[in-house]
Each structure stands twice: as C-alpha cells, then as structure tokens.
Amino acid sequence: MNWLSDRFELSHGAGAHTLRPMEGLRGLAVLLVFLVHYTTLAAPWQDGGSASALLARLLHLAGNSGVDLFFVLSGYLIYGSLMARRQAFLPFMRRRLLRIYPTYGAVFLLYLALSLAFPAESKIPPAAPDAALYLLQNLLLLAPLLGEPPLITVSWSLSYELFYYLATPLLIGAFGLRRQRRRWRVAFLFAVGGAIIAGHLALGAPLRSLMFAAGALLHEMRGHRHEMGGRLRPPNEGMALAALACALIVLLMPLAAPLKIVALAAALYRLCLCCFERPQGWLGHAFCCAPLRWLGNMSYSYYLLHGLLLKAAFVALAHLPPFAAGPLLLWGALPLLLAITLAGSAALFLLVERPLSLAPRRAPVLAGQA
Hints:
Elements: H1 2-8, H2 16-42, H3 51-63, H4 65-84, H5 89-117, H6 128-139, H7 156-174, H8 182-203, H9 210-228, H10 237-252, H11 257-277, H12 282-287, H13 290-297, H14 299-317, H15 327-357
C-alpha cells in the first residue's frame, strides 16, 4: 500500500483537504468514460432487444456524463486559480501546455506507430501533403474543431480544454472580474452560459462548454458560502444524488439538447458542491477513498490510453469461438479488461505524466489534473 501511495498520491500540503474529493470525482468521471467505450465496443456482440443490450445502452448514457464532470472540475480549478492571483498569460499557458502535451505526445506517437503498422485501421490520409496537414492539426488539437476525426478519438475534449485555457484569462482581464463584486461575477457567468446556449442554437457552437461555466460558478458559490460562515444550510448528499438521477432521466427524454445539458450541468454542480463543502459527509468521504482518488490522479493518462487498450482486448476476444462470445462473457470480462486498462495507463502515468507534467507546484490549487 505504501508503494502505491508513494506513486499515486498527489494531494499533499495546504490544498489536500479540498483536492481529495475532487480526485475521487475524477476517478468516477474516468470510470464513466470507460463504460462508454466498453459498451460501444461490446454493441456488435449484443442482441439488440435483450436485457443485456438495454443495460449497455443505459450504462452508455450515464457514461457520457463523465467528460461533462471533467469539464466542471476543470472549470472550477482554472477559474479559481486565475481569480486567486493575477498571472501573466504566457507563463499560465506554458504551464497548461506542459500539463497536456508530454502525455498527449507519448500517446500520439503510439497511435502514429500503430497507424503505420496497421494501415487498414489508420485514420491518416494516404497522400503525403494531406497526411502532414492532418497530423499537424492533431498535434495542435485542431482536428475536432475543423470537423476532422481526431487520431486519438478522445482528444476532442482536449480541444475544449485548450479553448477554455485561452478564453478564461482573457475574459477575466477584459471584464476586470477580480475587481467586481461577487454578485456581478455570478451574473456574468450566467450571461456566459446564456451566450453559449444562444451560440449553440444560432451557430451550432459546442454546447457542452456550458460545463466550464458551471465549474466557474461552483467556485463563486463556494466563496459565497465561506463569506456567510455557518449561516447557510450545508448541502444535502441525498438531494445531490437525487438531482443527478433526475438529470440522467432527463437525458433519456425527447427534449431539446440545451435543456438536457442545463439539467446535467446543474446536477454535476450540486454533486461537486456537496463533496467539496462536506468532505467528511458520507458522500464526500466516499470520494476520498484512496483507490478512487489514485485513479483520479492518473485519470489523464487513463483517459488517453484506455480506448486503445480496450480495442486491442476486443480484437483478442473476437478470436474466441462464436458460442463463447455472448453477453455472459462480455460482462464477465469487464473486470479483467478494466484491470488491463488500469495497468497500461498506470505505466504511462508513472513513466511520462507524473515525472514530466506533475512536478511540485507552488500553487496547491493546481495540483492534479485539470
């Protein structure tokens, strides 16, 4: 246990109290993403009308909220760190790029090598000029924004993250948010949320970027609660889980996309607020569980690599006799495939992410993955 703690524990020092449930929430988020890719790869093996297939669809739906939870946490961290102290834009971006690129670059090279080894599976265009442009777009995290399928499928979310890193310090500086009263900043964040929804309806702008605004609002609400001392009622764990369950039900309903995303953003906001404000409550305590937090600490490595490892595992499963490749095998294999993805991602974390991107920082609020 000490060996694992030494390598996967990150939340030390002044920020540990806040970061521990956040680390666990990241662990939950990446497990949800795992379910999305597992159920997607398992879909061809399922009878479309079976109970097993229905369970897979429900898990897939719930799993999609994993990336949204990442966005809320990232919105909270980045906005909070920028509001806490003035930071020069270029050093701030250098730190964020250092957080993204060593691990992304390692996985990018792995995908590139596999694309050359298995050209039938490659997304890279055959013509040299097109291939060079495509690889450059992926290196700059522009491919999803330009409508191209990214080389690393999950890297579309990094394009969202990078845009948020660019936009947030500019908005804080342009509108002088540090000088404004909290009520003004809250109103501003609601206006940003409204602009995101309007941009989606008018221009098809990415709607899930609303989650970043929810994370920033979470930071402001925590500050308000601390200013009020004990005069506000503590968040209720049962209500937080009920709100999340209701949001997932809303996702199943034939409603407009903005309504679904707003409901999910509100539920994830409430879940995070409850865990951060009551880390000693039963829900916050659950997210402080060491194995879940350690998974959260390596969640970036896991996020980038687990899909490739899962696909390799399903290719191996495809060689089993037809009578063996049924739902029972699929669900029974889930723990084994999860273990395989954990092992491979842990190696990436220990060899690349931790030594190159997670060196000790002077500002504890930035510890861990954002």
